[in-house]
Amino acid sequence: xxxAKRLQQxxxxxxxxxxxxxxxxxxxxxxxxxxxxxxxxxxxxNLLRHLAENASYEAARHVIVPGATVEEAKAKANAIxxxxxxxxxxxxxxxxxxxxxxxTVSVKVTFPAEKNLWMVPMFSKNLIFQSETTLLTxxxxxxxxxxxxxxxxxxxxxxxxxxxxxxxxPDPFGL
Length: 175
Hints:
Layout: H1 2-16, H2 20-62, H3 70-83, E1 90-94, E2 104-112, E3 128-136, H4 141-153
Antiparallel strand pairs: 1-2, 2-3
Helix pairs in contact: 2-3
């Protein structure tokens, strides 16, 4: 009999809490949606950041060969950016124009987050995705040495590379 009384009390208590499930759901649902949708937006931000890096690298890689043009680099970067529907991108390729004596190629990709995010772009008005890639061109060995010298020391790229003479090579047998 005591078991039946407890069951009766539980049934009466559940009748008193009949609307509590709806209230709890109404409180938790907006918080859960906020977390879920912000997770999607942060994933999109990470994808766009990686896309800027990939577009600048692939465009630079595409034009390091002799005979490539600035227009080819821009076309390659725009093709990669269009995969994710990026709008408002600006591309800078230097040097412009590319010559046979060009030692390095640099491609810079920049686009605003405000135009390219899906849900809440009002929180990212000042966020700009930017990536720059600089690669050595596939030219003669002397041109590459000059380009490396320019990158490392910031000196004149046409200046001769100083050679050091350390003397005879060391004796491997210690004789």
